[in-house]
Structure prediction request, 115 residues.
Amino acid sequence: MYQNKISLKPQDILEKEFKIDTRGYRLKEVDQFLDTIIGDYEQFLNIINSLEKEKAELMAEIMSLKQELRNSRLSVEVARNNVDNTEVTNIDIIKRLSQLEKMVYGSKDSKKDEE
Prediction:
């Protein structure tokens, strides 16, 4: 992906040999090579910065999705508890109604027996 932007590989730098003039290495050749290295370092820094930025955005998205998942799990748990409580409440209401009916109708039957 980024290999097209980088000119040198570590092996290229290691194996680089400069031609020697009467006063030492050819300055123009060394400067050109160093310019290439500087260009690669700038590319590395740009790549690192863009990847760090992308990483930060992805981490923020992950945190957001984790929070959304926690909220969803909590909502599901609350909904389940409400359903369970509603069922228990409905059963309790039906039992109470049944007892009230027995008391009301039972008292009518006991009044008829008394008459």
User: Anything to note?
Assistant: The beta strands are 20-21, 24-25. The first helix runs from residue 10 to 15. The mean pLDDT is 80. Residues 11 and 17 are 12 Å apart (CA to CA).
